[in-house]
Amino acid sequence: MRLGFVGLQHPHGTHSYYETPFCMAAALKRQGCSIPFALQLKMEDAALVNLRNKMTRMITGQHIVCERDARVVRHYPEQINAAVRQHQVDALLGTSPFYMVTRNCPVPSIFWADTTVAGMISRSPYYTHLTKGSIRDCHSVEQRALDSCALAVFSSQWAADVACESYNVDPCKVRVIPYGANLSTRLNPADIATCLRRRDESDWELLFVSVEWEPKAAQIAVDATTALRARGINARLSLVGCRPPRTIRFPDYVAVIGRIDRSSLKGQALLSALYMQSHLLILPSPADCVATFLAEAGAHGVPSLSTNAGANNTLVKDGINGYLLPAEAGQTEYANYALQLLADPGKYAALCWSSFQYFQTELNWDVAVSRLLVEINSVLNPADQQYACSRAS
Fold first, then answer.
1. Using CA atoms, how far apart are residues 181 and 299, in angstroms rounded to an integer?
2. What is the DSSP string of 65-98?
3. What's the rounded Cα separation, in Å, for the pair 68 and 108?
4. 340 Cβ contact list (under 8 Å, min separation 6)
């Protein structure tokens, strides 16, 4: 199958290694697909929109999502059609709805996204304090993409539900296929067994991973570690991937690792080593569109404790690769769950193994892409099939 890849960044660019577009494109190639072009959309008329955005920020404190502005998006279809005319492809694939606004495109367009803009407004810092006009443009672009696409694939049931509730979309073209882990690992059962032997039963290593600094979530992880230590357990916590404000002081049993360069072999090895040494991933995020860290933890045989909100309940299954707590759960609940798991070596080991197995069967890119290709083939060769929204198992 020949697929055209569409986005704002090139999937093989230096800064995209081991992020979602890179991992998706690499898995497609492993499955025998060719990608004749990876179109990096140009934001034409962006200078005017950026200037307006700066003035809006100065005057009102609000801002505009420039890449979704109507004056910028109107150029996307012609760029996509020009690439299709130059290269023979069977279909187009993008990682966000607004990339895939097409017009008179001769091949089907598919997007495989973590959510629509309806799932990000007021959740993501970037999508707060928007002007009414920008919000209107954002929703208009999503609707146009949903109208023109052949398939709308989401990485979680939550994202699919938000799209169906927020937009006028035919549910027959909606699918749910979870993303894989955005960290290259080749661990086998023997490696997981070695990891388990090295995890001390008396010294507990906890891990918190997030791209953005989330004060409430991080504080719950820190406080849960403190609560475990108050019960006589030598627990330590590593905060990875985010940069806390310099004014915050942490106790000596909390290590602030900060951001890790995933584009380097050294960065990948460091992050993998942190997973391997950790007993639990604690991610009390209020609502994630997609937390691929949960899949990465499973790739290293590490169970997860997270919130039953956003996309998390697609990636974490209670008793299989971790447990989901209510969104309002605090330090005591997380500490109690950690204690119940880690104080029972047999139960903990079983959960580690099932976490790894769930990664192998559900949360890796090769499995995900093979499912996507089945869906794309059903569009290219319909054979009078009837489709329905595929719920994540």
1. 7
2. -GGG-HHHHTTHHHHHHHHHHHS--SEEEESSGG
3. 22
4. 347
Beta carbons within 8 Å of 342's beta carbon, 6+ residues apart: 201, 204, 233, 279, 280, 348
Cβ-count burial 84-109 (b if 16+ within 10 Å, e if not)? beeeebbbbbbbbbbbbbbeebebbb
Count of C-beta atoms within a 10 Å radius of residue 316: 28
State the DSSP string of 264-312.
Answer: SHHHHHHHHHHHHH-SEEEE--S-BS--HHHHHHHHTT--EEEESSBTH
Using one digit for the tens of pLDDT, what is the confidence trace for 78-96? 999 999 999 989 999 998 8
- Cβ-in-10-Å burial (0-12, 13-18, 19+) of 245 comes to exposed
Beta-carbon contacts of residue 260 (< 8 Å; ≥ 6 apart): 240, 241, 267, 270, 271
Distance of alpha carbon 75 from alpha carbon 392, whole angstroms: 35
Tell me the per-residue pLDDT of 263-318, one tens digit each, with 9 for 90 and over: 788 888 899 999 999 999 999 987 666 678 899 999 999 999 999 888 888 899 99
Instruction: Please give the Cα distance from 213 to 256 (Å, whole number).
Output: 12
Q: Domains of the chain by range and CATH?
A: 2-180+365-380 (3.40.50.2000), 189-361 (3.40.50.2000)
The rounded distance, in Å, linking the Cα atoms of 38 and 26 is 12
Residue 5's SS3 state is strand
Cα(140)–Cα(147) distance, integer angstroms? 11
User: Given pLDDT bands bounded at 50, 70 and 90, which one contains residue 48?
Assistant: confident
Which residues face 2 on adjacent strands?
34
| Residue of 168, 157, 92 lying closest to 376 (CA atoms) | 92
Asked whether the beta carbons of 151 and 379 are under 8 A apart, the reply is: yes
Category of 383 on φ-ψ map: left (φ > 0), alpha (ψ -120 to 50) or beta: left
Output phi, psi for 236, to 5 deg.
Answer: -130, 155
Look at phi and psi of residue 334 and say left if phi exceeds 0, alpha if psi is from -120 to 50, else beta. alpha
